[in-house]
Amino acid sequence: MIVSALLLAGCNNFDDDININPNKPGQASGTQLIANAMLSLPGLSSSPQGEFMSQYLSETQYVNASLYPQSSTSFYGWYQGPLMNLETVLNAEQLSSLEGPVANQLAVAKILKSYYIWNLTDRWGDIPYTEALKGLANFTPAYDTQEFIYTDLFKVLDEAAAQIVAGNISNDIIYEGDMVKWAKLANTIQMLMALRLSEVNPALGREKFTEAMQAGVLESNDDNLVFRHLEDANNQNYWYGQVNVQEREWWAISSTLMDKMKSVSDPRLKIYANPNRTDGEYTGLVFGETEDIDTEKYALLGDAIHAQDAPVQLVTYAQVLFAQAEAAKLGWIAGDDTSAEEHYNLAIEASMEQWGADTSGLEEFMMQPGIAYNPAAAIEQIATQRWVHLFMHGYEGWAEYRRTGYPDNMVAPGGAEVPNRQIYIETEQFNNTENYNEAVQRQFGGSESLYGNVWWDVN
Amino acid sequence: MKKNYAITLLFLLGFLASMPLYAQQTIQGKVTAQEDGNPLPGVSIVIQGTSIGTVTDLDGNYSISVPGSESVLVYSFIGYTTQRKIVGNTSEINIALTEDVSQLGEVVVTALGITRDERSIGYATQEVTGENLTYTKEQNVLGSLSGKVAGVQVTGSSGASMGGTQKIKIRGVNSISGGGEPLMVVDGTPISNSNFSGSSGQDYGNLGQDINPEDIETINVLKGPAASALYGIRGQYGVIMITTKKGKKGSDVKVELSSAVFVDKVANLMPYQNLYGGGSSQTWRTLPNGDKYVDMSVDESWGPKMDGTLARHVMSFYAQDPTYGQLTPFIAHPDNIKDYYQTGTNVNNGVTITGGGANSNFRVSLNDTRIQGVEPNTSLKRNNVGLGLGVDLTDKLRITTNINYAANKGRRPGQGSEDGSRYLGQWFQRSLDMNRLKDYKYDDGTFLHWNLRRPSTSTGEVSNFNPLYWANPYFLAYENYSDDNRDRFFGDVGVSYQILPELKVSAFVRSDTYTQNINSRASFGGTGVSGYSIGKYQNTEMNYELLAQYNKVWNKLSLDANVGGNLYDRNYSYLSMATVGGLTSPGFYNIDASIDRPETNSYQQNKQIKSAYAMVSLGYNNTYFVDASLRNDNSSTLPVDNNSYWYPSISASWVFSELIRSQTMTLGKLRLSYAQAGSDLSPYSTTSFFDVGTNYSTTNTLTVPDNLNNPNIKPSFAHSYEAGVDFKFYEGRVGLSFTYYNQRNENQILNLDVSGTSGYGSATINAGEIVNKGLELAITATPFRLDDFNWDISFNLSRNRNEVVELYPGIDVYQYGSTTYSSTSSYLNSYVGKPFGSLVGQAYQRDEATGKILLGSNNMPLYTDATHDFGTVLPDFTGGFQNVLNYRNFQLAAMIDFQAGGQFFSRSKMLAVRTGLDPVSAATNDKGMNVRDPLEDGGGVKVEGISAETGEEVTAYVDAKAYYGVVGRRIYEDWLYDASFIRLREVSLGYNFNKGQYARLPVENVRVALVGRNLAMLFQNAPKGINPAELSTGSQAIGWYESGQLPSVRSFGFNLNVTF
Hints:
The structure holds two protein chains of two kinds.
Chain A: H1 2-9, H2 30-39, H3 48-53, E1 57-59, H4 76-90, H5 102-124, E2 127-128, E3 143-144, H6 146-163, H7 179-196, H8 202-215, E4 225-227, H9 238-245, E5 251-253, H10 255-262, H11 269-272, E6 312-315, H12 317-330, H13 336-355, H14 362-367, H15 378-389, H16 394-404, H17 427-431, H18 433-444
Antiparallel strand pairs in A: 1-5, 2-3, 4-6
Chain B: H1 2-17, E1 25-33, E2 44-47, E3 53-55, E4 61-66, E5 72-76, E6 83-86, E7 95-97, E8 107-109, E9 115-117, E10 125-129, H2 130-134, E11 152-155, E12 167-170, E13 183-186, E14 189-191, E15 201-202, E16 216-222, H3 225-228, E17 239-244, E18 254-267, E19 285-286, E20 292-293, E21 310-311, E22 328-329, E23 344-356, E24 360-372, E25 379-392, E26 397-411, E27 414-415, H4 434-437, H5 473-479, E28 482-498, E29 503-522, E30 531-554, E31 557-583, E32 594-620, E33 624-635, E34 644-654, H6 657-660, E35 665-679, E36 691-692, E37 702-703, E38 707-708, E39 716-729, E40 734-753, E41 762-785, E42 789-806, E43 813-821, E44 824-831, E45 838-841, E46 854-855, E47 868-872, E48 877-887, E49 890-900, E50 903-906, H7 907-914, E51 941-947, E52 953-958, H8 960-970, E53 976-978, E54 981-994, E55 1005-1020, E56 1041-1042, E57 1048-1059
Parallel strand pairs in B: 1-7, 13-17, 38-41, 46-51, 50-56
Antiparallel strand pairs in B: 1-4, 2-3, 2-5, 5-6, 8-9, 10-16, 11-12, 13-14, 15-27, 16-17, 18-23, 18-57, 19-20, 21-22, 23-24, 24-25, 25-26, 26-28, 28-29, 29-30, 30-31, 31-32, 32-33, 33-34, 34-35, 35-39, 36-37, 39-40, 40-41, 41-42, 42-48, 43-44, 44-45, 45-47, 48-49, 49-54, 50-53, 51-52, 54-55, 55-57
């Protein structure tokens, strides 16, 4: 009878909050979401695949991924992770000004979103952008052309820099809320993007480059976009997990890189690599070598590179200087060779400083043939030194290689040339069929591979 | 047997009764229950061949006028054997009806525990009796159903898993998401059958196994929505109705002891080659002093020939090892994997005591099971206690209770390609001596591993003794184990009141509650960091239930009406923690030992469903029956303004044999039904929330979840149509049941995978339609029924056809799962217009005209991208075949189950070939040379195909390691296998000693039996060593890929049952 009373008591009435998840927060603040999006930054760099694309590292075990197999790579994680968090901030009806000026929160979200999108389009080519991140409103976003994405990102980054007001934001694990640095970063990203257009649209590149430069770019290594890992397993460097925790000796310094560094006694080499364990030499491993590799005989990753709290450098002052050197050489900015040489020298110095190399012999190093600025080979020198500087930032080193063609000693393992892009994940063929087909048709005439060229990669 | 003769006799009498009638007389009497002597109210008494009849009153008394002494009275009552009596010259006929639960198919337990005469039911039912389940002491009740019920597919796991998952699917896959497990109900109490396993690692098994098989009287499988409509939102995927044994009122106390001892042996291991040992090249590696050594850094067997060459083996690099520095012969160890397994034991002891007083009945059971696994250091201990009580407080008021307790304590082996010892068949050296690995720990505490980094090329010594990829399997078994235990109570307390002879009201409080604990450890000295994790999961499900039942017979018309309500309330919570960054000191396994901030989770969940239902069954002349039911469910997990739904069903049966009166056909029945059932979703899926991200220093981060919740979700609906016929011939010696069904599940609630570029990986939506159509055939026969020999056969066969009719607009594919190895993925996808579950992956590129394989410039086969559809994994037919032979006191029973069609992908086989373990990797080619011999000497694998460049036919020989490196990594086409099988699942040979025959027997009855379980695979197309019947991997709803499957286990045992 008690039971019947109970049943009759409330037929379709339940407690109001019975179906509200008590285990998860229902609200998120803007900066908490932004902070989470920042946690994904090292992933843009810390990836064996990126190191293989730029041939910084050779594989020592089960050599396979470095042979450039025609397999797909997913970009979903970037959309579902940092980009969706940033989009949520950008679309939020209300953000709390207790966490710093709302305009600044939005500006940081825009800058980070642009930076992620830029990385993605450089790796895959056309990608969903304007229709992406809409959730229920669009489960099948169309692919935007890379050209459009570049144009739009310039606009968004301008907006972001322009809207910054005085006042720090909280939970900023990159710049501790320093908005001046964010503004410089926004301009720097534009500057590096502009340089990417040196082949496909130099006029636009030049325009955006000079605009960005005037707006104010990174001025020292203190301004770098760098993710600082912690001495804590929850926030540790990827390579620490691989090399120290899993004790993997799967990667050796490639001969490609060693050839460029050892002959000139580059002081960064002692940071980049540990000497081999047979005779203490810095021995590179031929990229794509497959058989019978004794890791003992080769220079493996340097201790500083796989330290638990090793920082991940993403957008750096040295890149700014290399870019300016190249722009001067290209005549985009004033100064010709004089300016180019000056920036080139400063760039190398900034790189040495960033990597913590022993700079006591820097002058001597800079005077060596091949390193000393040579107007006749300036572009190659700038590009090669930039590639040396970008060590471990594989995808960026690879993008610059695709644009410039340097360094000149990249190899083709088993006949497979350095890829020009990455292949879209197969799931797109199932879940976003029409748009996928259209994008592949538009860019590559119907079937994609590692060797289709992205828009800016015209030669 | 006797009973059948009685029926035969009654039939003969029945025919006599159809003779002309003479004079009128009045008969009076009382009908009682044979078992307890209590009067039976409401028993129908009809004069055979007429529509004249009456029913007994509350005291079981009746009075009826009959035309004459030749008249035959038919006494029938639900749950009791119908009796017929010639009136003769007497005026008083007292009848004792015997309860009828054993005679297959006469009375069945239907939804909500309502007992019904089978003939009145308009949908297929198939009941399995407890005796049929316990021949072989299978511990998991769902496993013992395999092959016994038409339309029910059981996918098992290996006995080595220690109580691993047994999965059950009724009438195909009815959910596009692949899920859809039936509800389990024990004596009316729904019990949880959830699962704490992942798709790899320890298989903790389905929780439904907590029911003690010895307690089961019958299992009735409610296959479709028509049968399970009264369960509404919980019954969309069918119901397994379990009724436990009960004591009988007024019976003597009976004590029964049962004891069983089993020995388990690993059976059906994959074959391995024994020509080449560990290494990646046939060229020996040497130490600085010139000594050859076995390359311990390679976990493959592409090394030198095992020809007895003297070499340093891995143990000889351990200074603590007696063979330190010594050269020993490099030889094959053909049984090295087999040697890892040990003989398992399974000891089961049980006691049951049953009995009853004048107004009460009881049954108490105790059971103790102890299993030692075939994998080292694995075990399972289970205790069950069962109590069933019934007391008549007055002659109208009765209280009953069923209480079940189960305690489980397991230490189980991991499964999956990279868990525990599972790598042995995938990444191993044929030259390793398993018996040397057994002593995995030296006296100084150093662990012996076989897979290390190479010795220094300068010193010739190994400097790092941490394992490279794989730890010693014994180290994993004895140091890195996982323990789990579960305490569980389920049962009910009920009270019923017989208001009128026709009307009974009852109320129940039902509960199912458990606490599951799981912890696991990773020791120092293995691969990766040390660690410890612990989880405590608690669940309480309460059901408060009220039911009013009304039964009335007016002459030819019978009415059976039920009205009820139910409140379901489930509270689930867990706490789980894991160390991060390693443990502070060896051997201290505690969250307190975490070096960094440990990972911690707390969770709680509440769900309620409020339901009301009604069911009416009308019968006419015991020939025509119509049932209708309606249920209303309100689920708290649905959106507030849209949470109430109605689920109707209607069914009809026509017992046409009543009209035909054939001598051969005892029963002929036609049945039809239509029903709707539904299902809701898990709590908290209608509102949005954020996930907690990693903390960076003092910054707490939050992130948008990968699944998009939906505030507008509706329950999914299943529409089911069913038609069938049942026949019994020759007094039930031959029975045949045939069913056709069509079940359309629409508006499914899916976590549909969407393009991640939308910002979400999946979205909770109502979408899709999946249709299952099928045929079920069940045949029973007794070809011999002699005085001392009886042979019973039962056979069932079912065929199911499935189609995914619709998905979400713009999305034509539902991805159930994927697996990736070496950057190559394969998928289980469902496509619109095709059956559920297509295996999708990379295939050979083929020449369009000839179908021949296309070869690249190096004569290696070319392959497609990972979108080739290899077709569905669902089987064409499933079924079972059971034989029981009784000769005097001997009984021989054998059970075969089978499946035709279906397929799966075997990663174990692929890797065995790719890593040079499989015989094919060391086969002899058509030139008589080993495929591993140099190409110039006539070695190599022969490839035939068409050059993609030239279009010319090519026959070439290619390097075996390179060839299998491509095929064994990139081309899934080669690793798909037919899942057909015919398995001899159970055989038991028993002998009965009873007091009747052996007067000097000090006890009532003794039964001894020899039993074999999982005895032999009579047929399979899949390669040896891979069991297509044990594809269940933990919680995976669909077994579609095999990866590190535990070896099959064959069991032999001895059973003893003593009844006092």
